[in-house]
DNA sequence: TATATTGCTTCGTTAGGCTAAGTATAGCTT
DNA sequence: AAGCTATACTTAGCCTAACGAAGCAATATA
């Protein structure tokens, strides 16, 4: 591979695609292993990350989908016994989606598509390399979120807690 | 943000998620602008990148989906007049999916979800920073494709040609 | 009390994905 | 030449995910 700036743009795009692709394909596999589809798994992950209970509204915001979609997804995880709906006492219009023991079990089977494979590899890297990769990723994320496009509304460190990780 | 290795793992995962999310949301918008869905747009992009004509088999391999899925997607881009099917002369079992002028027009409206926003920003970066980001991305891509998971079968530089890029 | 507004669900539709089964062509084997 | 077997696609039928519109119930506000 040559080193002209032009080629670097192409090469970085290709690498980005490989990352996207690997993640997408792996997500299918993992979700299948846990008896859940990727979208349903995401629901459980978010509920767990929010302390085991959250509202459909919050799920919709965080996932970037409509409430109607969340209703359908919650129906399915509820049907599989991995969560239950409970009416809120504070505001009786609200429903809390509460993860069950079965749900937590499923999450442990398939903790996270990205985490499972990425964390293992990342933590083997040399210190300087980890630092460099982190800086690059943050740069890219900033480049992509910026430009007036309102992505990633609620994605904070809360979503991925150290305690969730294996190892 | 502190600098402990642990935090770096979390932070890099968060950045990776932001990238994935921004890409996914932006893909919808762009595809909508071109009058195509993201998957249909991908079909056209691959056909164009392969010189304006390719087979369903090649599309399926490159996209990582079944041939039946490709048939359905090709049906849709054909229905929109953005491609046509032509029987191959060499092997009459094969069909060539050939992009039309309308298809090329649509591609120019929405060249690429990743490209559109990424290339602009990337090419503004300092030389050393481009090099660092590229190295990091390639490292991550290698980390993710590896581990015995057979992702990204045919994703080579052929997919994204310099000529496709704006600027 | 009457009228929003909010939170969620239901309904109907579209898209993308799969597997299984079918059709047509190509390539062997005998 | 006849008869497998493999390849390339399509068809049919199913599932999941997503949406918007419309509905219902509870809260907030006038």
Write structural notes for this entry.
- The structure is a homodimer of 167-residue chains.
- Chain A is mainly α and 167 residues long.
- Chain A has a domain at 37-105: Arc Repressor Mutant, subunit A (Orthogonal Bundle), CATH 1.10.10.10.
- Chain A is built from 7 helices and 3 strands, in the order ααβααββααα.
- Chain A has helices at 5-33, 38-49, 56-63, 67-79, 101-109, 113-122, 127-145, and strands spanning 53-54, 83-87, 95-99.
- The first copy, chain A, has a 3-stranded antiparallel beta sheet with strand order 1-3-2.
- In chain A, a hairpin with a 7-residue loop joins β2 and β3 (95-99).
- In chain A, α2 (38-49) packs across α4 and α3 (56-63) crosses α4 (67-79).
- The longest helix of chain A has 29 residues, at 5-33.
- The two termini of chain A are 36 Å apart.
- At the A-B interface, α1, α6 and α7 of A face α1, α6 and α7 of B.
- Chain A binds a DNA duplex (30 and 30 nucleotides) through residues 28, 37-40, 55-57, 65-73, 75-76, 91-95.
């Amino acid at each position: 591979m040559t080193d002209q700036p032009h080629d670097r743009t192409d090469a970085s795009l290709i690498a980005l695609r490989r990352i996207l692709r690997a993640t997408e394909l792996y997500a299918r596999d993992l979700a299948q292993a846990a008896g859940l589809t990727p979208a349903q798994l995401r629901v459980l992950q978010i509920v767990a990350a929010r302390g085991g209970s959250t509202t459909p509204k919050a799920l919709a915001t965080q996932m970037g989908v409509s409430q109607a979609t969340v209703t359908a997804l919650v129906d399915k995880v509820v049907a599989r016994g991995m969560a239950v709906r409970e009416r809120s006492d504070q505001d009786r219009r609200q429903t809390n989606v509460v993860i069950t023991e079965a749900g937590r079990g499923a999450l442990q089977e398939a903790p996270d598509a990205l985490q499972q494979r990425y964390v293992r590899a990342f933590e083997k890297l040399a210190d300087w390399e980890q630092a460099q990769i982190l800086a690059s990723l943050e740069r890219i994320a900033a480049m992509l979120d910026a430009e007036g496009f309102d992505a990633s509304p609620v994605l904070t460190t809360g979503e991925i807690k150290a305690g969730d990780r294996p190892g």
